[in-house]
Amino acid sequence: MSAIDPEIPDDGHRSRQRQLAGDLRALILSGDIGPDQRLPSTAELTRRYAVNNQTVTRALALLKAEGLVTGHKGKSVVSTRRRPAVVRASHYPTPVAPGDPLPWLGATGRDAVVRLLGVGETAAPAQVARTFGLPAGEPVVFRHQVLVLDGEPAELVWTYYPAEIARGTALAGDRRLRGGSPTVLAALGHPLRHAVDQVSVRPATVAEFIALQLPGDIPVLRQFRTAYTDRERPIEVTVMIKAGQQFEIRYELPAGD
Predict the structure, then answer these.
(1) What residues contact residue 70 under an 8 Å CB cut-off, 6+ apart?
(2) Contact at 8 Å (CB) between 213 and 129?
(3) Which residues form the HTH gntR-type domain (predicted)?
(4) The pTM is what?
């Protein structure tokens, strides 16, 4: 931004502080404002957005809550080195040796920990029942976990299995799965062959907002993953609710013929 930059119009829907925060967030995440680089001055931002100092302060507070900027009153505000963890859409966990860390956690570049929140049986949610080809309300085994990145909750995970497959196995136990679910399923005679993701973005529910400790009106990224075994049988369904400010999804696409 410079003195000759034009003023930014009002989009007519969001508050001006959210519009300003959105523009600055985009510049930071794209690298146009790099780590440790100063943000435009308050005077410049008030001029370009036709707002007062208080609106700028509130916009910067939103970015501070997300960990993207740091600064103190009366001093310049700079971009931090914090960036979303990059997750490959083409990646699906493979079996690992018992006791070894799950490799995708290290790939996030963050201090990652998975905590098991609950295990049991429940009536299959509608989308899960349709995927497994089960009658509505049929019981399924579920595992509920939270992924914590750098000490902050980042993703809520629910994984479902047909009860006839998982009942009485390690999948229904209240301990971490040795080698991950692919290892357990393979041992049960159901090797995972491929998986399909459906990805969407939506506002958080009240429970998600609280559990993920979202900093303001941040959307969540929802992944609905179906993993298949032999003969294209769906054997595992995973619902992942990711904090929007914590992740980017990377797609690796083969060249077409």
Answers:
(1) 64, 77, 78, 80
(2) no
(3) 14-82
(4) 0.83
Query: What is the three-class DSSP state of 133?
Result: coil
At 180-217, the pLDDT tens digits run 899 999 999 999 999 999 999 999 999 999 999 998 88
Beta strand 152-162 pairing with 139-149: antiparallel
SS3 11: coil
Q: Within a 10 A sphere around the Cβ of 119, how many other Cβ atoms?
A: 17
Q: Say how far apart CA 238 and CA 236 lie, in whole Å.
A: 7
CA dist 216 and 195 (Å) reads: 33
Q: Does residue 6 have a pLDDT over 90?
A: no
Fold classified for 85-250: Chorismate lyase (3.40.1410)
Residues of the chain above pLDDT 90, percent: 66
Cβ atoms of residues 114 and 107 within 8 Å: no
DSSP per-residue codes, 56-106: HHHHHHHHHHTTSEE--TTS--EE-S--PEEEETT-------TTSPPHHHH
Question: Based on C-alpha coordinates, what's the Rg of the chain?
Answer: 22
> Tens digits of per-residue pLDDT, 113-125?
899 999 999 999 9
Q: How many CB atoms lie within 10 A of CB 94?
A: 14
* Number of other residues whose CB lies within 10 A of the CB of residue 35: 12
Strand partners, 226: 196, 237
The answer to whether residues 57 and 87 touch, using CB atoms and an 8 Å cutoff, is no
Domain with CATH 3.40.1410.10 in the chain: 85-250
CA 49 to chain centre: 31
pLDDT of 141 reads 98
According to the CATH classification, is domain 16-79 in 3.90.226.10? no
**Per-residue confidence (pLDDT) for residue 97, from 0 to 100:** 57
